[in-house]
Write a structure and sequence with these properties.
It is a single chain. By secondary structure, the protein is mainly alpha-helical. It is built from seven helices and no strands. Helix 1 packs antiparallel against helix 7. The protein is elongated and about 55 Å long.
Length: 156
C-alpha cells in the first residue's frame, strides 16, 4: 500500500510541476498576479509530494519489499541497513528522484524564506529553475522508468 501511495504522489507531483510551469507563465503574460502567485503554493506542494514518494521508496528498500521491481534489481535482504538506505539513490531512478527532491527543496525554501525578494525574481525562480526541469526529469526519466517497471511487474 505504501508503494502505491508513493507512486500516486509521484504522479501528483508531476501534475503539480505541469501547473507550476504553465499557469504562472500564462499569468505573467496576461499580467495577473493571482495566477502568478500559484507558483509558491505549487512549490510547497511539489516538495511535500516528492518527499512522500521518496519516503515510500526508502521504506520499500529498508523493509526489503521485493514487490517493487526497483528493489529486486538493486537490493538484497541480507544487506546492512546503511547500504539499504543508500541503495535508494544508488540506482538511476532513485538518484533522479533524489535530484528532483533536492531541486524542489530549494524551490520550497525560496517560497518559505524569500518574502523580501522581488516578486519577478521569485516567479522566475519557480518557473525557470524548478518548473520546467522538474517536468523534464519527471517525464523523461522517472515517470517512464516507473511505468515500465510497473508494466513489467504486472506482466509476470
Amino acid at each position: 500500500m505504501i508503494n502505491e501511495i508513493g507512486h500516486f504522489t509521484l504522479l501528483l507531483a508531476f501534475c503539480v510541476a505541469l501547473l507550476q510551469a504553465t499557469v504562472p507563465l500564462f499569468g505573467a503574460h496576461k499580467g495577473r498576479i493571482d495566477l502568478m502567485a500559484i507558483s509558491e503554493s505549487a512549490a510547497n506542494l511539489q516538495f511535500a509530494l516528492l518527499l512522500a514518494s521518496f519516503g515510500a521508496l526508502t521504506h520499500a528498500f529498508m523493509t526489503s519489499d521485493f514487490s517493487v521491481k526497483l528493489v529486486v534489481l538493486n537490493s538484497h535482504s541480507l544487506k546492512p541497513m546503511l547500504y539499504k538506505i543508500t541503495g535508494v539513490w544508488g540506482n538511476h531512478e532513485g538518484s533522479m528522484l533524489l535530484w528532483v527532491l533536492i531541486l524542489s527543496l530549494f524551490g520550497a525554501s525560496a517560497s518559505w524564506f524569500g518574502a523580501n525578494l522581488p516578486i519577478l525574481l521569485i516567479l522566475t525562480l519557480f518557473y525557470r529553475i524548478q518548473g520546467w526541469p522538474s517536468i523534464h526529469l519527471f517525464y523523461i526519466w522517472v515517470m517512464w522508468v516507473y511505468l515500465w517497471l510497473f508494466l513489467l511487474q504486472s506482466l509476470h
